[in-house]
Amino acid sequence: MSAEHPARVAGLASQAAVRAKDKAAWVALFAADGIVEDPVGPSGFDPEGKGHRGAEAIAAFWDLAIAKTDSIEFLFDDSFACGSEVAFTGTIRTRIGGHQIDAEGVFTYKVDDAGRIAALRAFWEVDRAMSTTKPVD
């Protein structure tokens, strides 16, 4: 597993910015027409399931989905880099309002030629994640 793969580098930088709660750094990682689909398809974060495209929409997604959390951990088992993309497998653990929620899934990052994130796609099931909700010890 090469940590030097451009998509893996961008994915790890994205995760670090989220852990640090650094919105500006996170949004800056994306290409001008980059898109976030988290989760892929319709959800409470994206009722039409079209994703959040461009810096303004990605920043608004941050405010809706990330800013309100107490912490987010990326508990990934592995990653697979191919072409201009990487897929991380494992769990994203979110703590919010005294509760913990685990979203198991596959989380992909595609980069452009400059190494900027062109697409972040998160394949996880809302109902399945919500069923893991428990009070934080």
Question: Can you characterise this structure?
Answer:
Strand 5 and strand 6 (117-123) form a beta hairpin. Strands 1, 2, 3, 4, 5, 6 and 7 form a 7-stranded mixed β-sheet that branches. The chain is an alpha+beta fold. The chain contains 4 helices and 7 strands, in the order ααββαββββαβ. The longest helix is centred in the first third of the chain and has 14 residues, at 6-19. The mean pLDDT is 96.
What is this structure, in a nutshell?
The protein has helices at 6-19, 23-28, 55-66, 126-130; strands at residues 30-37, 52-53, 71-82, 85-96, 99-111, 117-123, 134-135. The protein has 137 residues and is an alpha+beta fold.
How would you state the average pLDDT, rounded? 96
Percent of residues in helical segments? 25-40%
User: Any low-confidence stretches, pLDDT <50, length ≥5?
Assistant: none
Radius of gyration: 14 Å
* SSE class: alpha+beta
Instruction: Give the termini separation.
Output: 35 Å
Number of helices: 4
Instruction: Tell me the β content.
Output: 35-45%
Question: Major sheet: size, sense and barrel closure?
Answer: 7 strands, mixed
Order of helices and strands: HHEEHEEEEHE
Q: What's the β-strand tally?
A: 7
The backbone outline, from C-alpha atoms, is: globular
